[in-house]
Amino acid sequence: MYQHDGPMDGRPEQLTAALNGATPIGWWRAPGRVNLIGDHTDYCEGFVLPMAIDRDCLLAVAEADGGRIRVRSLELDGVVDLDAAGRDDPRTVEPAWGRFVAGAVQVVNERGASLPGLDIALSSTVPAGSGLSSSSALAVALTFALAQLGELKLDRREIARDALDAEVRATGVPGGLMDQLASLYGEADHALLIDCRSLDVEAIAIPPDLAVIVVHSGLPRTLADSEYAQRRADCERAAGGLGLPTLRDATFDQVRDDPRARHVVTENERVLAFARALRDGSINELGPLLNASHASLRDDFEVSTPELDQLVHALMEAGAMGARLTGAGFGGCVVALTAAKRAQRVISDATERYQGVTRLTPIPFVAHGSEGARHSLAP
Ligand code: GLA
């Protein structure tokens, strides 16, 4: 499942072959994302600044008889075989990756879609379990495809909400909307400032001389789901205690003594400062904001691990401008910025240092801003 060497060649041919001779009627593609800054703010109606990446989930879809939706994956085992009318319970479907399919099938049916029988083949180059939104890439690609095939007229915000709904039905984890919006609104060579209250999205160019480095820590995400739900509940409690609908409306003075809420309020400020610096070309301001975000996630929000801290440290020692854990935390990836011409040097130096201390095998790559989910008649 885990691919590290960039988008696979030959995927369209392999997907067509996996349809057992049926001719695809359409192709849908949705990217993963790396979050540059703004973690654990989306479900507080705050600000986030992710970038859709050049790793994606690709679907080939053919029509089939019999009112069933059958899905095969090039990377994951088993065949998912579901009722097209959405009668399967997403929480119990096997193989387990089929729960995302069942969630999407159910959501579009409830929206009023009438789905034909379908054969679907899919392949993902988004590393699983790493904080790069492989699940959202899958859920967005499926929801986008099924909504269109079921003749629903949904805009991209509605697809994002429905894809999140499908994921929540599949996993029970009460995620926010950042990952789905990033996957749907991505633009080549841009990051996205998203206001998670209004759902306004502003694409901001990443200067070509700046490299976005992503390094998987080699540590799978553990506890991420249960701790995530607890953190979200902490934030809701803090907002409730202040008589506010969400922490978006809290001021620093109100949350000064509550580390969880303090993270959210200060992280929102950092996202806006980061967006301003990126727009203005004030590149020197970006690194310190990343480092402050990591410190806040580590000390106030407590979602880091010693390994992620080590990796951030190693990247800084190797000369990165700034580095932070990205996504929910508890393992997975770190994101760092460097001058593009120094990226390979920083990567090799940092991974060597990190490996020496932790004995884990880090997996680095340089991520590029990519366009959002799309449908096409040919791959
Ligand atoms: C996960 C969730 C997102 C977001 C991040 C933390 O990726 O799916 O909605 O909350 O964690 O920023």
List the helices and strands and how they pair.
Layout: H1 11-18, E1 26-37, E2 47-64, E3 68-73, E4 79-83, H2 98-110, E5 117-124, H3 134-149, H4 156-171, H5 178-185, E6 190-195, E7 201-205, E8 210-216, H6 224-241, H7 252-255, H8 259-280, H9 286-299, H10 306-317, E9 322-325, E10 333-339, H11 343-358, E11 363-367, E12 374-376
Parallel strand pairs: 3-5
Antiparallel strand pairs: 1-2, 1-12, 2-5, 2-6, 3-4, 6-7, 8-10, 8-11, 9-10
Helix pairs in contact: 2-3, 2-4, 3-4, 3-5, 4-5, 8-9, 10-11
Bound molecules: alpha-D-galactopyranose.
Alpha-D-galactopyranose binds at residues 39-40, 42-43, 175-176, 178-179, 327-328.
Can you describe this structure?
The chain is of the alpha+beta class and 379 residues long. It has two domains: 195 residues, Ribosomal Protein S5, domain 2 (2-Layer Sandwich), CATH 3.30.230.10; 161 residues, Alpha-Beta Plaits, CATH 3.30.70. The chain is 39% helix and 23% strand. It is built from eleven helices and twelve strands. The strands form two sheets. Strands 1, 2, 3, 4, 5, 6, 7 and 12 form an eight-stranded mixed β-sheet that branches. Helix 2 packs across helix 4. The longest helix is centred in the C-terminal third of the chain and has 22 residues. The protein starts with 10 loop residues before the first helix and ends with a strand. The N terminus is likely disordered. The site of alpha-D-galactopyranose has 10 residues, from helix 5.
